[in-house]
Design goal:
alpha/beta, 6-stranded parallel beta sheet, 3-stranded parallel beta sheet, 9 strands, elongated
């Protein structure tokens, strides 16, 4: 961006840095280099506006990338599951280091959930191109039906009743499907201690950040235990009012993310910046 700016080329930043979470000093650099910031979360616009950076909220691009699902019954039949019985989706992450940190605890939580939720089944949303060995902890589970489905996260979410997901973009994807979720995450102890000093937010899950309050539970670092995962997951099945409140709050989050067309609006903003800089760019 600095090189382009020095050449007189306008810079439009689409999907901006998470300055609201850490390293807010980057706003000073962005103010100097960026002609317009295009943000994908509604609360980000005020942050950039307060820093005197031209900004537009264009919505979240995932809204346009969520395919129409085959439906719960069709997916359950294809995967050998009972569509009438409870289904819990497990989204352990998409990177090997995430799976190594999350899957053993999730595997230990599965029989605990099964003891609380009669007939429960589990579907693992498996990111593509991951080694089979990373999923060994789940293969040892015998307490309930567990299947792993690769490359079809939206179908897994659509077919599920409750989701246990690693923190990250998957929480936005889960919110778009309006599925009650439990957010989990674990870093190495040293990385967590060092990073915690610089993080400015009190919640980590994007669903909670967009809502402006904690609407779904977060089990981070030492709080991420098999018992806690089981308790928070089972609560959605045992407390119908709690589950309904969560779904209603997630519907509000989905609405706040926009109504689709984020990339089209981003392209329009790029063209507007070019036109404003002269006919040679327009």
């Amino acid at each position: 961006a600095g090189s382009l700016h020095r050449l007189g080329i306008p810079v439009v930043y689409y999907v901006c840095p998470q300055v609201w979470a850490w390293r807010s000093g980057r706003l000073r650099v962005l103010k100097r280099l960026v002609d317009r910031a295009l943000v994908i979360f509604p609360f980000e616009a005020a942050i950039y506006r307060d820093a005197e950076i031209p900004v537009e909220f264009v919505g979240h691009p995932l809204l346009d990338l969520t395919p129409v699902s085959a439906g719960r019954d069709a997916c359950a039949a294809e995967w050998g599951l009972d569509g009438a019985a409870p289904i819990v989706a497990l989204l352990p992450g998409s990177r090997p280091n995430e799976l190594r940190a999350t899957l053993p605890t999730l595997a230990d939580a599965v029989p605990r959930i099964a003891a609380r939720v009669p007939g429960v089944q589990f579907v693992v949303a498996r990111a593509p191109n991951l080694p089979d060995g990373l999923f060994d902890p789940l293969r040892a589970v015998r307490a309930s039906r567990v299947v792993a489905i690769a490359g079809r996260t939206d179908d897994v979410l659509s077919a599920s009743d409750v989701v246990v997901t690693a923190s990250g973009t998957a929480t936005v994807q889960t919110a778009i499907h309006e599925r009650p979720m439990v957010i989990v995450y674990r870093l190495s102890p040293l990385t967590y201690r060092l990073g915690k000093r610089f993080v400015k937010v009190s919640t980590y899950g994007m669903a909670n950040l967009v809502a402006g309050r904690r609407i779904v539970p977060e089990l981070i670092q030492d709080a991420f235990t098999p018992g806690a995962v089981a308790d928070e997951t089972a609560r959605y099945f045992e407390d119908a009012e709690y589950a309904a409140r969560t779904r209603a709050a997630l519907a509000e989050v989905r609405a706040k993310l926009g109504d689709g067309g984020a990339s089209r609006r981003a392209a329009e903003q790029v063209l507007a910046v070019c036109r404003a800089r002269g006919p040679q760019l327009g």
